[in-house]
Amino acid sequence: MLNNNRLLSVALVLFGVTFCLIYPLAMLWPSGWAWHEGSPVSSHYFMMIVGIYATLGIFMICAAKNPTGNRSLIWFVIWSSIVHAGVMGLQALGNGMHRGHLTGDVPALLIVAAVLAFLMRRVDMYIK
């Protein structure tokens, strides 16, 4: 159980830090991370998403100290990442201008969900 918790903690910190870095990622690779034209600060929507993901990232980093005590938050990250990736994927398929997201934030969110779900299932096996 200790190794499973440790792996989950590492994943939470790595993904949490990544969530906090959405803004710089959009600056480096706009077609894969930003859903608007122009500077990231020119979009109120994008800045709202940056704020939400940075907040979630900080909570993920905090949850890494006690993953089993933060199961609800972790499952929220998993399921909200799947839903977000699904919506973005459909939108990217429907609009050729956003196809870069199919190689950027869409797979990134699915990777976050898959890794955390795999690790959470291993932790949950030992709890029950």
Automatic annotation (TrEMBL):
Keywords: Membrane, Transmembrane, Transmembrane helix
Stretches that traverse the bilayer: 7-25, 45-64, 73-94, 106-123
Pfam family, one: DUF6632
InterPro entries assigned to the protein according to its UniProt record, in alphabetical order: DUF6632 (IPR046572)
Protein name: Uncharacterized protein
Organism the protein comes from: Commensalibacter communis
